[in-house]
Design brief:
By secondary structure, this protein is an alpha+beta fold. Helices cover about 40% and strands about 20% of the residues.
């Protein structure tokens, strides 16, 4: 090396975690040039330029073009650097928030798939499920020829207006009132909802009769009929809302007629109503004494 403290291209590339090819390119476009040249035109960089490369690499990861970086460098000043850094920090915080939201969505989708791993799709089970945070829409309006897609669009618009900062990129499911389920009206849901850790509503902790089936959206008649038969035969009664979900949907199933459907009906065990022998005898004795 011609001077103490200078690094060859190879050494500088190693210390700055870049490549010789990248350094040659930076030199060619006038973004970062060697501070000295030795015999045979060998290039040498200073240790201080490592921090410069780190800034370039960071800005590139943030999507800033080399041309823009060069403009920033050519016009740099304390004031300009402060303004530019403030802007980049703001953009970085936005990206961090976007990535955090994306991670939450991926976790939700993965969790949904894992809930049906190795299940018996023909079995009907009874499970106590904990409460979960959801975003619940208003009561759907099906008047004047409106259908479920109209209601779904209204749901998205209403939630977006009500919670402008809330992430809406979650799978949307439907909930039915106990009155609707009891009378066999399972066509279109009363409300729409989706799971979200930031949701202001709750899918309640409760005892649920849970059944599965295959089909497309809204093709649930056979599932409900099986479940209603099970509820009647096993001394249960419906006491709350029913939640209808599609844990295996278009995200992981190519056939839109073969989604895995899950129906969860809120129930409780019916209370036994009977008279004890003692009370029956008392009634009989009372009648006989008249």
């Amino acid at each position: 090396m011609p001077n103490h403290g200078l690094l060859s291209v190879s050494a500088f590339a190693e210390f700055s975690r870049t490549t010789k090819k990248t350094l040659h390119h930076y030199d060619t476009i006038g973004l970062l040039s060697p501070v000295a040249r030795g015999e045979n035109d060998y290039r040498y960089y200073s240790v201080g330029q490592i921090a410069f490369v780190n800034v370039i690499r960071t800005l590139r990861k943030m999507g800033v073009s080399l041309a823009e970086i060069k403009t920033l460098i050519n016009n740099r000043s304390p004031e300009q650097a402060d303004e530019s850094l403030s802007h980049r920090i703001e953009k970085a915080e936005e990206e961090i928030e976007n990535w955090v939201r994306a991670r939450k969505l991926m976790i939700t989708l993965k969790k949904m798939i894992h809930t049906v791993v190795n299940i018996d799709e023909q079995a009907i089970t009874v499970q106590y499920l904990p409460a979960e945070a959801i975003v619940l829409g208003d009561l759907n309006d099906y008047s004047q020829g409106r259908n479920d897609y109209d209601a779904l669009l209204t749901f998205y618009r209403t939630i977006a207006d009500k919670y402008p900062k809330l992430d809406l990129n979650y799978p949307v499911w439907g909930t039915f009132s106990q009155e609707r389920v009891r009378r066999g009206d399972w066509r279109w849901p009363d409300r729409y909802y989706f799971y979200n850790p930031e949701g202001h509503d709750k899918k309640p902790a409760a005892l649920y009769v849970i059944g599965y089936g295959r089909g497309g959206y809204g093709q649930t008649k056979e599932i409900y009929e099986r479940m209603m038969g099970y509820i009647g035969a096993n001394n249960f009664e419906i006491i709350g809302n029913t939640y209808e979900e599609y844990p295996l949907n278009e995200i992981c199933v190519p056939d839109d007629t073969n989604y895995l459907i899950r129906v969860m009906i809120t129930v409780r065990v019916k209370r036994q109503r009977y008279k004890t022998k003692a009370s029956t005898d008392s009634v009989g004795n009372a009648r006989g004494s008249k």
